[in-house]
Amino acid sequence: MYLLPRHLTTTRLALFILAVSAAGPLACSSVQAADENGKLRIICFGAHPDDAEFKAAGVAAKWAADGHKVKFVSVTNGDIGHWRAAGGPLALRRGAEVKEAAKILGIETEVLDNHDGELEPTLENRRQLTRLIREWEADIVMSHRPNDYHPDHRYTGILVQDAAFMVTVPFFCPDVPALKENPVFFYYSDRFEKPNPFTPDVIVAIDDVMDKKLAAVHSLPSQVYEGGASGSEAFEAEVPDDAAGQRAWLIKVHGGRYAAVADKYRDALEHWYGAERAQKVKYAEAFEICEYGRRPEEAELRKLFPFLGK
């Protein structure tokens, strides 16, 4: 028998009954650790339409190639993320850019209609992200750390942290069944040291998918070749016009970011790949476990990242 909370309104009672009916007797959810085919479900949140692509396109391409289900979510629409354009037209342009990136990576994507630069960790936004994680039936959730230079990045991180517990609570957003097991939550790597530096709990060699990652990044010209909010005419003048020149520039500038990750966390690469293999890795993406979600041991991490060591 279910014990109903005191002061349960008619509306909340109806939602409760729906949630219980969907969950089944004495259960919060029918969600399993992976789908019936053993495939993982991963959802990656970025504050803007480019953040998840920059931080996790490599692992996304690897998961997708193995048949796992990946979704990128931009929590804002990026409508002020350019130095000479803004508003609805820019939001539409950036939405189209990440859709093209998703096609290249073999994943799904969604852009939420929140204004760029105005994101706040409100209850409604917490509900929105909680629903998205539940609806995706996520095994893995990724996002920014909450100590980051951009307020939208910070608040995306906080919202995902807040959702890390709420996704398993049946009476929070009872219109979407709660997850039976907490997903594993990860942070993207960053360079910020205070109040605490990034720790590479998992680092993935992405050399074999680097061309695909660069192709996805190439599909974001408003941010890559025009500089986004920090761009200028001088910045654009430095970017080559021809395809070969652009690719060389892309490898140097953006490829250099992922080469820097591999170099900075070479010791972590050795742990996952062995010393000989680690020394050959040129590009990598790194992730830190958020302690608010499930905290897996190494054996489970290798199942969640089945390409580690390969």
Defining traits:
310 residues, alpha/beta, Rossmann fold, 12 helices, 7 strands, disordered N terminus
Q: What can you tell me about this protein's structure?
A:
- The chain has 310 residues and is α/β, with parallel strands linked by helices.
- Helix content is 45%, strand content 11%.
- It has helices spanning 10-23, 51-65, 88-105, 123-136, 151-166, 210-218, 221-224, 233-238, 243-264, 266-273, 275-280, 298-304, and strands at residues 41-46, 69-74, 108-111, 140-143, 184-188, 202-205, 284-289.
- Helix 2 (51-65) links the parallel strand 1 (41-46) and strand 2 (69-74).
- Helix 2 (51-65) packs across helix 6 (210-218) and helix 6 (210-218) crosses helix 9 (243-264).
- Mean pLDDT is 90; it is low at 1-32.
Q: What structural class results from the helix and strand content? A: alpha/beta
Count of strand segments? 7
- What gyration radius follows from the Cα positions, in whole Å? 20 Å
CATH topology: Rossmann fold
What is the domain tally? 1
As laid out across the biggest beta sheet, the strand order is 3-2-1-4-5-7-6
Q: Would you tell me the overall average pLDDT? A: 90
Q: How would you spell out the order of helices and strands?
A: HEHEHEHEHEEHHHHHHEH
Q: Class in CATH?
A: Alpha Beta
Low-pLDDT regions: 1-32
Concise description?
This protein is an alpha/beta fold and 310 residues long.
Give the topology.
Layout: H1 10-23, E1 41-46, H2 51-65, E2 69-74, H3 88-105, E3 108-111, H4 123-136, E4 140-143, H5 151-166, E5 184-188, E6 202-205, H6 210-218, H7 221-224, H8 233-238, H9 243-264, H10 266-273, H11 275-280, E7 284-289, H12 298-304
Parallel strand pairs: 1-2, 1-4, 2-3, 4-5
Antiparallel strand pairs: 5-7, 6-7
Helix pairs in contact: 2-6, 3-6, 4-5, 6-9
